[in-house]
Automatic annotation (TrEMBL):
Family: Belongs to the GerPA/GerPF family.
Cross-referenced InterPro entries: Spore_germination_GerPA
UniProt-listed Pfam families: gerPA (PF10676)
Highest taxon listed in the record's lineage: Bacteria
Descriptive protein name: Spore germination protein
Source species: Bacillus licheniformis (strain ATCC 14580 / DSM 13 / JCM 2505 / CCUG 7422 / NBRC 12200 / NCIMB 9375 / NCTC 10341 / NRRL NRS-1264 / Gibson 46)
PANTHER family for the chain: SPORE GERMINATION PROTEIN-LIKE PROTEIN YDZR, SPORE GERMINATION PROTEIN-LIKE PROTEIN YDZR-RELATED
Length: 73
């Protein structure tokens, strides 16, 4: 189905990212990854101001495999 997409601002697309506009039939990632970040790590925007006086991040990944990519072509 066609779509009218408004203004778009993409700062960076790296090797493992995906950017889609309009309809997407299937998304099949070619890699799996886990990310852990502290308070304010994944904030987006042009002018972010984040105050984190006291914080602690503990990232524990107990499983052996996060996801399967064997059937993704």
């Amino acid at each position: 189905m066609p779509a009218i997409v408004g203004p778009i601002f993409i700062r960076r697309v790296v090797d493992d990212s995906a950017a889609f506009f309009g309809d997407v039939f299937a998304i099949s990632p070619k890699c799996t990854d886990s990310s852990g970040g502290g308070a304010g790590t994944f904030q987006t925007g042009d002018y972010g101001l984040i105050h984190n006086d006291i914080n602690k991040t503990t990232f524990t990944d107990a499983d052996v495999m996060d996801g399967s990519q064997s059937l993704n072509l």
